[in-house]
Automatic annotation (TrEMBL):
One of its GO terms (molecular function) is DNA binding. GO terms for biological process: DNA integration; DNA recombination. It comes from Gomphillus americanus. This is Uncharacterized protein. PANTHER family: FLUG DOMAIN PROTEIN, FLUG DOMAIN-CONTAINING PROTEIN.
Length: 467
């Protein structure tokens, strides 16, 4: 018996797991289960179950969901050990308060999800708020969800291109770091939609934004200057990786500030990869003459097509070591762990007093969309890839109020721009912060008694393992 069998009230289906049913009949609910299960399920839950639209249930669990199940069981086991109980027996003895039955169709059975009783939930909460907090030295309270606005991002990129002395394995990574930060800021996408995700079940899959997800277009209006546009398709959004449709966001060039221009960074990578179609390369396409190409008569746009063999090649790629030195890997996408590490380093060296993470840009997009009176919840959810507005309110909304309450009370003109900046990392930046330890500080650190003791314990443990 597995741990999942402890909470599964359904007997084995007449068809094995994964076995297909050729019947064309409608979905049927099977309530021929143990009477003990029926005793603990309220009648109103059974009535709601009969009205459930089974067609909306997934036929199989995604890899990320299975990994989440394993992680949940690890946390449950840790809690059980904290109260000195065996995890399986403790789960079996818990009295369900509500039981959502994932009814099965003839092709197999779905799992069930049980919630703990009020008494068990109270015990778990008490353990987390006392013993667990004390053991790990945790401080209860709401964590400030900092955001990074355009001023902070510009300051970071200015340091990145002007003062950063970091040595990258290949200089392409310097361009990729800046380009990815701009793509995250201008699309509001999750990091896993642009580079290879670190999520369980996806890590190592080789899935990332590829050249086939982008479309470079030259717009030549009847009046005005030509303008380059970049249509970005978010194909690998969370929970939508297997769906054929994907949202597309249009970016445009910023001639006034090349450091903040997504088109410039894309062109640098595309020309380095020789990604454009031979037809355009034969016509003399170069970064300096893109605006001079003529459109077809009667049209105002021209798409710069890419080579077919480049459609599935990731744009942002990792490096590899060869006999001739270090070079860009032709197929391996850049992992999210690499970008998280480099982003944190860049934020620290740029003088940010709090750790910078790529998610700070996504929170800023959500905050600005909420403040924009012309953008509704539905549009914001579409851009951020949320199924419900509650997700933003619960996980993205900053604890810093961006409304000038003082001006509202006094009836004065609002200083909303100043108030908004207080919730960002802009005013919490000090370019003069030390970037590394001095030699004296390093020497004192190596002489620290706690550090010496910890190293001795580590070496002793290593010897025990080797023995």
């Amino acid at each position: 018996m597995t741990r999942f069998d402890l909470i599964d009230p359904y007997p084995t289906s007449e068809h094995g797991a994964g076995e297909e049913d050729d019947s064309d009949s409608d979905f049927e609910f099977d309530f021929d289960c143990d009477s003990a299960f029926l005793d603990i399920v309220p009648q109103k839950s059974l009535d709601a179950l009969r009205q459930l639209d089974i067609s909306e249930l997934p036929r199989e669990l995604a890899a990320a969901t299975l990994a989440l199940q394993e992680r949940t069981w690890e946390l449950w086991s840790k809690f059980a050990r904290g109260v000195q109980r065996e995890p399986g027996e403790l789960l079996k003895r818990c009295e369900p308060k509500v039981c959502h039955a994932g009814c099965h169709r003839r092709t197999g059975r779905k799992g069930t999800q049980a919630m703990l009783s009020a008494s068990a939930s109270t015990k778990q909460r008490r353990y987390l708020q006392t013993t667990f907090y004390l053991e790990h030295g945790l401080i209860r309270g709401m964590q400030q969800a900092y955001t990074v606005g355009h001023n902070t991002l510009l300051g970071m990129l200015h340091h990145h291109w002007t003062f950063d002395k970091t040595s990258f394995p290949i200089e392409r990574e310097r361009v990729q770091l800046a380009a990815i930060l701009l793509f995250l800021a201008y699309t509001g996408a999750r990091l896993g939609a642009i580079v290879e995700s670190n999520a369980s079940g996806i890590r190592g899959s080789g899935e990332a934004m590829s050249y086939g997800d982008l479309k470079l277009v030259l717009l030549k209006p009847p009046t005005g200057l030509p303008l380059l546009l970049l249509e970005v398709k978010i194909r690998l959004d969370k929970g939508k990786r297997k769906r054929p449709s994907a949202k597309a966001i249009t970016l445009y060039e910023n001639a006034n500030c090349p450091a903040m221009c997504p088109i410039v960074h894309f062109l640098a990578l595309a020309f380095a990869d020789n990604a454009f179609h031979p037809e355009f390369m034969a016509a003399g396409l170069s970064p300096t003459n893109l605006h001079s190409f003529a459109t077809v008569e009667g049209r105002t746009t021209l798409e710069f097509k890419l080579r077919k063999d480049m459609k599935k090649v990731p744009i942002f790629r990792f490096w590899r070591s060869t006999l001739h030195g270090v070079e860009v890997d032709p197929t391996r996408p850049l992992p999210a762990s690499n970008l998280n590490r480099e982003s944190r380093r860049l934020g620290q060296q740029a003088g940010l007093l709090h750790p910078f993470r790529p998610y700070c840009l996504r929170r800023e997009v959500g905050t600005q969309l909420t403040a924009d009176q012309g953008v509704g919840d539905q549009q914001r959810n579409q851009i951020l890839g949320h199924a419900r507005s509650e997700t933003f309110l619960k996980h993205y909304l900053s604890s810093s109020v961006i409304v000038d309450v003082q001006a509202t009370f006094l009836g004065q003109e609002s200083k909303s721009d100043l108030i908004k900046e207080m919730g960002k990392l802009t005013l919490r930046r000090d370019p003069n912060l030390p970037k590394e330890l001095t030699q004296d500080q390093k020497r004192l650190a190596h002489q620290d008694e706690d550090l010496i003791k910890a190293q001795a314990e580590l070496q002793g443990t290593e010897r025990q393992i080797e023995a």
